Amino acid sequence: MAYEGIILGMGNPLLDISAVVDDEFLQRYDIKPNNAILAEEKHLPMYEELAKNPNVEYIAGGATQNSIKVAQWLLQHPGATSYIGCIGKDKFGEEMKKNSKSAGINVHYYEVESTPTGTCAVCVVGGERSLVANLSAANCYKSDHLKRPENWALVEKAKYYYIAGFFLSVSPDSALLVAEHAAANKKYFSMNLSAPFICEFFKDALEKVFPYMDYVFGNETEARTFSKVQGWETEKVEEIALKIAAWPKASGTHKRIAVITQGPGPVVVAEDGKVKTFPVIVLPKEKLVDTNGAGDAFVGGFLSQLVQEKPIEDCVRAGCYASNVIIQRSGCTFPEKPDFK
User: Fold this and answer.
1) Does 204 qualify as catalytic in the annotation?
2) Distances (CA, A) of 271 to 2, 144, 197, 238, 298
3) Among the options 16, 214, 290, 296, which is catalytic?
4) How far apart are CA 211 and CA 332, in angstroms?
5) Residues with pLDDT less than 50, the chain
6) Which of 19, 20, 237, 307 has the highest Cβ tally under 10 A?
7) Is the residue at 112 inside a domain?
8) Spatial distance between the Cα atoms of 68 and 20, rounded to a whole number of angstroms
9) What one-character-per-residue DSSP string does 37-84 give?
10) 224: buried, middle or exposed (CB in 10 Å: 19+, 13-18, 0-12)?
């Protein structure tokens, strides 16, 4: 099977500024534990404070980019993945390019002069992460860039597409263009609910692209928020997954599969009106470093097997393997070679 360019990811490239902080830090900046939000004025001094932390780490991130990086790592075929997003022409942008290229990803960034590369504050308390994204340049992505022949060629070459819901706050028309292409060409389009605020405040954009989704990823908090916003009146993850899978589709080529993770709880998969659950790999508390990128890594692992046309069980197993590796390290990073069997 020809793997070159088989997966295309599109999203918000962010440089993670990651450090261990305490509860007082979260309270001071009005941050909830284990949540993901967009930065407001009150959060801006925090980036400077984190940068002064002696243990601060800079890691090329952003939800979609993390997933693509993990899929690339597991596939071990240089250039199997491509990625599109917007960065600034600055030091952080150069860092991002270097990092992604060394990971073997074919990146086609839209580079802007006027706005700095986006950053994401990763505040780690007791292994759990809270994310505050300052999108900056990531917010400047335009569908004109996607339509350029050299970039649209990546869309045409790919058979599988993955976009995190976060991107709907930036360029919903770009997401729709890719979704429509996938449906028209019998390819696979997948998205992530990404965060409660996407389900709540970008409801219309999400619903517009929902009919095109062949795979819907999310965690239990996002699933419950989505259910609430839809007026489904259920908190049961299995029921929500079934309803997501049953949402009408734009093309009848593929059925929709909903995949909901629950941290250390079992992974819930709904398809064809049935639910299956899969246990995750149990990790002793003392081995947990931080959960940043765990959900992204799960998707990356899942996609790495999906493109090889492996059964859903293998996709979930690879997802669980990848997230287990990631949570034992700082940020969305991994050893040089995977040992997934």
Assistant:
1) no
2) 28, 36, 26, 11, 18
3) 296
4) 30
5) none
6) 237
7) yes
8) 25
9) EE--GGGHHHHHHHHTSTT-EEEEE-HHHHHHHHHHHHH--TTSEEEE
10) buried
26 found inside a domain: no
Sole residue written with tokens 């609430």:
228
In which region does residue 248 sit, left (phi positive, over 0), alpha (psi from -120 to 50) or beta (all else)? beta
- With vertex at residue 48, the alpha carbon angle to CA 168 and CA 290, rounded to the nearest 5 degrees, is 65
Closest C-alpha among 334, 328, 304 to residue 316: 304
What per-residue confidence (pLDDT) applies to 208? 97
Residues of the domain holding 101: 7-14+62-117+135-327
Per-residue pLDDT at 268 = 98
Residue 127 falls within a domain, yes or no? no
CB of 118 closer than 8 Å to CB of 96? no
Q: Where are the alpha helices (DSSP H) in 267-328?
A: 294-306, 312-326
Is the residue at 74 inside a domain? yes
Q: How many domains does the chain have?
A: 1
Q: What is the pLDDT of residue 309?
A: 96
CATH number (domain holding residue 237): 3.40.1190.20
Residue among 125, 57, 117 nearest 87 (CA): 117
In terms of phi and psi (left: phi > 0; alpha: psi -120 to 50; beta: otherwise), the region of 159 is alpha
Q: Which two tokens stand for residue 251?
A: 């093309």
Kind of pairing, strands 215-219 and 257-262? parallel
> Do residues 83 and 300 touch, judged by C-beta distance below 8 A?
no
> In degrees rounded to 5, what are phi and psi of residue 270?
-115, 125
Best CA proximity match to 215, nearest among 146, 262, 263, 160: 160
Distances (CA, A) of 235 to 97, 123, 263: 41, 28, 16
pLDDT, tens digit (0-9, with 9 covering 90-100), for 262-298 = 999 999 999 999 999 999 998 988 898 878 789 999 9
Give the whole-angstrom CA distance, residue 216 versus residue 193: 7
What is residue 131's three-state secondary structure?
strand
Q: Determine the Cα–Cα distance for residues 166 and 11; give it in Å rounded to an integer.
A: 7
